Amino acid sequence: MASHRRPKQPSRTRVTVLTATAAAAVALTSQTAHADPKPSKAEVKAKVDTLYEEAEAASEKYNGAKEKQDKLEGQIGNLQDKVARGQEELNELRQALGSAASAQYRTGGIDPSLQLFLSADPDDYLDKASALDQLSSKQAEGVKKIQAKQRDLAQQRQEAQAKLQDLSDTRKELGDKKKQVQGKLADAQKLLNSLTAAERTELRQEDERASRSAGDRVELGDAVPASNRGAAALAAAKSKIGTPYVWGATGPNSFDCSGLTSWAFAQAGYTIPRMSQAQANAGTRIASQSALKPGDLVIFYSDLHHVGFYAGNGQVLHAPKPGANVRYESINNMPYMFGVRI
Fold first, then answer.
1. DSSP for 232-244, written as a single string
2. Distance between CA atoms of 286 and 298, rounded to whole angstroms?
3. Tell me, what's the pLDDT at 294?
4. Residue in 78, 75, 91, 102 with CA at minimum distance from that of residue 150
5. Is 4 a catalytic residue?
6. Cβ pair 267, 252 in contact under 8 A
7. Is 306 a catalytic residue?
8. Consecutive H or E run containing 223
């Protein structure tokens, strides 16, 4: 006889679990379908190049803050030396005035007219009285010197205090710029790490091939250098081809862009400013690329944050970016602003 029992219904708990599982699976499938695709090697390179450019701009601002800090530290040291010397001079003036006053007090207990009446030698007394008048005059002069020295010291201390506050602000700015640079470089490295090892190798090889190609095209021939000084600076920079870029570095074993150019001119016996923006105003500006000569500085980007040497035949020699070495590169790879002839 057939059974008429109703089939067993799934429990409410089981239905809830199955429903939740199904919903999660649908949501996961939906998220997977709408997930951002992995960026291509070209996209990663473009983003990394942008981050490196931003890092270099921040690095030049860091260089400016560092230069300001060094200058302030020197000025504060000089002011503190002046204050110390001035305090010693003030102490000596006070001591001399105090000694004279004590001596006058010890010999000045008798009324001057009575001293003259009792003196066995009036002429001798008058000579001494004249000396006392001169001593009083010197005392007055000493008081004026002390007052003047006190004013000078107060002014120097005030100036030193203002510079100390400026130094504190500059150190904070320096720390902020350093964090900006490190943040940009960390973001760039994170993007590079998203690539496979093979893709990273391909990017490095492409970069190296572009550098070698630019170097092969540099043929100065009979090109006249900008100046003997420019030629000497360019020669010094050439000796550092292959040296790594390191932000904030001024050589001789690593450089950033303005670190290389300032170091090279120093080897030529000439000092130029540390920052690229300041180097942009260190000589005669050359508007046209066609007027550039080997040894001229070349300034790039609207905020003037990158600088290199014009090497001839449309090429620049520079410290390009993090992860790269000092090398030749086409002048057209970056937005040209103008040249500078030192």
1. HHHHHHHTTTTPB
2. 9
3. 96
4. 91
5. no
6. no
7. yes
8. none
Please give the C-alpha separations between residue 255 and each of 214, 262, 287, 317, in angstroms, as whole numbers.
Answer: 20, 10, 27, 13
- The answer to whether 308 and 298 have CB atoms below 8 angstroms apart is yes
Q: Any idea what the Cα angle at residue 327 is, between residues 325 and 331, rounded to 5°?
A: 130
d(C-alpha 22, C-alpha 31), whole Å: 14
User: Quick one: tokens of 321?
Assistant: 């970016």
Does residue 318 carry a catalytic annotation? yes
Q: What angle do CA 291, 294, 297 make, to 5 degrees?
A: 80
Q: Are the beta carbons of 327 and 255 closer than 8 angstroms? A: no
* CB proximity list for 233: less than 8 A, separation 6 or greater: 261, 264, 265, 267, 268, 270, 295, 309, 342
User: Tokens at residue 91, please?
Assistant: 């102490």
Query: What's the pTM value of the predicted model, to 2 decimals?
Result: 0.67
Residues of the chain with pLDDT under 70: 1-36, 97-140, 142, 211-222
Question: Alpha-carbon distance 130 to 18, whole Å?
Answer: 119
